[in-house]
Amino acid sequence: MDAGGPGAGGAELEQGLGGAELLRHAVGSLLSNYGWYILLACVVIYVIVQKISQSLAARQGGRAGAVDAADIEPDLVVRRQEALAAARLRMQEELNAQAERYKEKQRQLEEEKRRQKIAMWESMQEGKSYKGNLKLSQQEVDSGASTSAAVPKSKPNKKPLRGGGYNPLSGEGGGTCSWRPGRRGPSAGG
Questions:
Q1: DSSP H helix total and E strand total for the chain
Q2: What does pTM read for this prediction?
Protein backbone atom coordinates (compact mmCIF):
# COMPACT_ATOMS: atom_id res chain seq x y z
CA MET A 1 0.00 0.00 0.00
CA ASP A 2 2.84 2.29 0.64
CA ALA A 3 4.17 1.81 -2.84
CA GLY A 4 0.74 2.24 -4.42
CA GLY A 5 -0.07 5.34 -2.35
CA PRO A 6 2.48 7.76 -3.74
CA GLY A 7 1.97 6.54 -7.30
CA ALA A 8 -1.79 6.96 -7.06
CA GLY A 9 -1.40 10.47 -5.61
CA GLY A 10 0.86 11.43 -8.50
CA ALA A 11 -1.70 10.26 -11.06
CA GLU A 12 -4.39 12.37 -9.40
CA LEU A 13 -2.04 15.35 -9.41
CA GLU A 14 -1.32 14.86 -13.11
CA GLN A 15 -5.02 14.58 -13.88
CA GLY A 16 -5.69 17.79 -11.90
CA LEU A 17 -3.02 19.61 -13.91
CA GLY A 18 -4.46 18.17 -17.09
CA GLY A 19 -7.95 19.44 -16.15
CA ALA A 20 -6.58 22.90 -15.36
CA GLU A 21 -4.66 22.88 -18.62
CA LEU A 22 -7.80 21.79 -20.48
CA LEU A 23 -9.84 24.55 -18.82
CA ARG A 24 -7.19 27.15 -19.62
CA HIS A 25 -7.09 26.00 -23.22
CA ALA A 26 -10.91 26.10 -23.55
CA VAL A 27 -11.16 29.61 -22.02
CA GLY A 28 -8.32 30.85 -24.20
CA SER A 29 -9.92 29.44 -27.31
CA LEU A 30 -13.30 30.96 -26.37
CA LEU A 31 -11.77 34.39 -25.75
CA SER A 32 -9.73 34.29 -28.92
CA ASN A 33 -12.80 33.45 -31.01
CA TYR A 34 -15.50 35.54 -29.29
CA GLY A 35 -13.54 38.00 -27.14
CA TRP A 36 -14.71 41.22 -28.79
CA TYR A 37 -18.33 40.09 -28.77
CA ILE A 38 -18.14 39.21 -25.09
CA LEU A 39 -16.52 42.58 -24.29
CA LEU A 40 -19.16 44.48 -26.28
CA ALA A 41 -22.00 42.55 -24.59
CA CYS A 42 -20.52 43.36 -21.14
CA VAL A 43 -20.30 47.08 -21.99
CA VAL A 44 -23.90 47.15 -23.28
CA ILE A 45 -25.19 45.37 -20.18
CA TYR A 46 -23.27 47.79 -17.95
CA VAL A 47 -24.74 50.84 -19.73
CA ILE A 48 -28.29 49.45 -19.54
CA VAL A 49 -27.93 48.73 -15.81
CA GLN A 50 -26.66 52.29 -15.21
CA LYS A 51 -29.58 53.85 -17.14
CA ILE A 52 -32.16 51.75 -15.30
CA SER A 53 -30.67 52.56 -11.89
CA GLN A 54 -30.63 56.31 -12.73
CA SER A 55 -34.25 56.30 -13.87
CA LEU A 56 -35.37 54.41 -10.76
CA ALA A 57 -33.43 56.81 -8.53
CA ALA A 58 -34.98 59.80 -10.31
CA ARG A 59 -38.49 58.39 -9.87
CA GLN A 60 -37.99 57.68 -6.19
CA GLY A 61 -36.27 61.03 -5.67
CA GLY A 62 -39.08 62.88 -7.48
CA ARG A 63 -41.73 61.23 -5.35
CA ALA A 64 -39.84 61.89 -2.15
CA GLY A 65 -39.17 65.51 -3.18
CA ALA A 66 -42.85 66.14 -3.85
CA VAL A 67 -43.85 64.63 -0.51
CA ASP A 68 -41.18 66.62 1.31
CA ALA A 69 -42.27 69.90 -0.31
CA ALA A 70 -45.88 69.26 0.71
CA ASP A 71 -44.80 68.51 4.26
CA ILE A 72 -42.56 71.57 4.49
CA GLU A 73 -44.89 74.25 3.09
CA PRO A 74 -48.58 73.29 3.26
CA ASP A 75 -49.59 76.96 2.91
CA LEU A 76 -47.96 77.12 -0.52
CA VAL A 77 -49.82 74.01 -1.64
CA VAL A 78 -53.12 75.44 -0.39
CA ARG A 79 -52.51 78.74 -2.23
CA ARG A 80 -51.68 76.91 -5.45
CA GLN A 81 -54.85 74.83 -5.19
CA GLU A 82 -56.96 77.93 -4.52
CA ALA A 83 -55.40 79.73 -7.50
CA LEU A 84 -56.07 76.72 -9.69
CA ALA A 85 -59.69 76.55 -8.54
CA ALA A 86 -60.14 80.28 -9.17
CA ALA A 87 -58.67 79.96 -12.68
CA ARG A 88 -60.99 77.06 -13.42
CA LEU A 89 -63.96 79.06 -12.18
CA ARG A 90 -63.05 82.04 -14.40
CA MET A 91 -62.66 79.78 -17.41
CA GLN A 92 -66.02 78.13 -16.69
CA GLU A 93 -67.71 81.53 -16.42
CA GLU A 94 -66.23 82.61 -19.76
CA LEU A 95 -67.42 79.38 -21.33
CA ASN A 96 -70.91 79.87 -19.93
CA ALA A 97 -71.01 83.45 -21.26
CA GLN A 98 -69.93 82.26 -24.73
CA ALA A 99 -72.59 79.55 -24.65
CA GLU A 100 -75.25 82.10 -23.69
CA ARG A 101 -74.21 84.40 -26.55
CA TYR A 102 -74.34 81.46 -28.95
CA LYS A 103 -77.80 80.46 -27.74
CA GLU A 104 -79.04 84.03 -28.17
CA LYS A 105 -77.63 84.18 -31.70
CA GLN A 106 -79.28 80.85 -32.52
CA ARG A 107 -82.61 82.15 -31.16
CA GLN A 108 -82.32 85.23 -33.36
CA LEU A 109 -81.55 83.10 -36.42
CA GLU A 110 -84.52 80.84 -35.68
CA GLU A 111 -86.76 83.88 -35.29
CA GLU A 112 -85.51 85.28 -38.62
CA LYS A 113 -86.13 81.95 -40.35
CA ARG A 114 -89.62 81.83 -38.87
CA ARG A 115 -90.34 85.36 -40.15
CA GLN A 116 -89.08 84.41 -43.62
CA LYS A 117 -91.30 81.34 -43.68
CA ILE A 118 -94.30 83.44 -42.64
CA ALA A 119 -93.51 86.00 -45.34
CA MET A 120 -93.11 83.22 -47.91
CA TRP A 121 -96.45 81.70 -46.89
CA GLU A 122 -98.19 85.04 -47.12
CA SER A 123 -96.69 85.74 -50.55
CA MET A 124 -97.86 82.30 -51.72
CA GLN A 125 -101.36 83.05 -50.44
CA GLU A 126 -101.34 86.32 -52.39
CA GLY A 127 -100.26 84.46 -55.52
CA LYS A 128 -96.74 85.82 -55.73
CA SER A 129 -93.70 83.69 -56.46
CA TYR A 130 -92.21 82.21 -53.35
CA LYS A 131 -88.91 81.36 -55.03
CA GLY A 132 -87.94 84.99 -55.43
CA ASN A 133 -85.68 86.83 -53.10
CA LEU A 134 -87.62 87.48 -49.90
CA LYS A 135 -85.64 90.61 -49.12
CA LEU A 136 -86.71 92.19 -52.42
CA SER A 137 -90.33 91.26 -51.79
CA GLN A 138 -90.11 92.73 -48.28
CA GLN A 139 -88.70 95.96 -49.74
CA GLU A 140 -91.57 96.09 -52.22
CA VAL A 141 -94.06 95.69 -49.41
CA ASP A 142 -92.31 98.34 -47.34
CA SER A 143 -92.10 100.86 -50.18
CA GLY A 144 -95.75 100.34 -51.15
CA ALA A 145 -95.02 99.40 -54.74
CA SER A 146 -97.85 98.47 -57.06
CA THR A 147 -99.14 94.91 -57.12
CA SER A 148 -98.63 94.51 -60.85
CA ALA A 149 -96.22 91.78 -61.81
CA ALA A 150 -92.85 92.92 -63.09
CA VAL A 151 -91.74 91.79 -66.54
CA PRO A 152 -88.87 89.33 -66.14
CA LYS A 153 -85.67 90.17 -67.97
CA SER A 154 -84.78 87.83 -70.77
CA LYS A 155 -81.29 86.40 -70.68
CA PRO A 156 -79.27 86.84 -73.85
CA ASN A 157 -78.54 83.57 -75.61
CA LYS A 158 -74.91 82.77 -75.07
CA LYS A 159 -73.15 80.39 -77.38
CA PRO A 160 -70.59 78.07 -75.81
CA LEU A 161 -66.94 78.97 -76.24
CA ARG A 162 -66.02 75.51 -77.50
CA GLY A 163 -67.91 72.71 -79.13
CA GLY A 164 -69.77 70.36 -76.84
CA GLY A 165 -67.45 67.43 -77.53
CA TYR A 166 -64.17 69.19 -76.81
CA ASN A 167 -62.43 68.46 -73.53
CA PRO A 168 -58.71 69.24 -73.33
CA LEU A 169 -58.19 66.92 -70.37
CA SER A 170 -59.62 63.85 -72.01
CA GLY A 171 -56.86 63.43 -74.58
CA GLU A 172 -59.40 62.94 -77.35
CA GLY A 173 -60.16 65.13 -80.33
CA GLY A 174 -56.75 66.73 -80.44
CA GLY A 175 -55.80 65.28 -83.80
CA THR A 176 -52.45 63.61 -84.19
CA CYS A 177 -50.62 65.93 -81.84
CA SER A 178 -50.23 64.77 -78.29
CA TRP A 179 -47.74 66.03 -75.74
CA ARG A 180 -46.00 63.66 -73.39
CA PRO A 181 -43.51 64.61 -70.71
CA GLY A 182 -39.87 63.69 -71.20
CA ARG A 183 -38.02 60.94 -69.42
CA ARG A 184 -36.75 61.52 -65.95
CA GLY A 185 -33.11 61.16 -65.15
CA PRO A 186 -29.89 62.57 -66.50
CA SER A 187 -29.63 63.51 -70.12
CA ALA A 188 -28.07 60.94 -72.40
CA GLY A 189 -25.42 63.28 -73.74
CA GLY A 190 -21.76 62.33 -73.66
A1: 3, 0
A2: 0.31
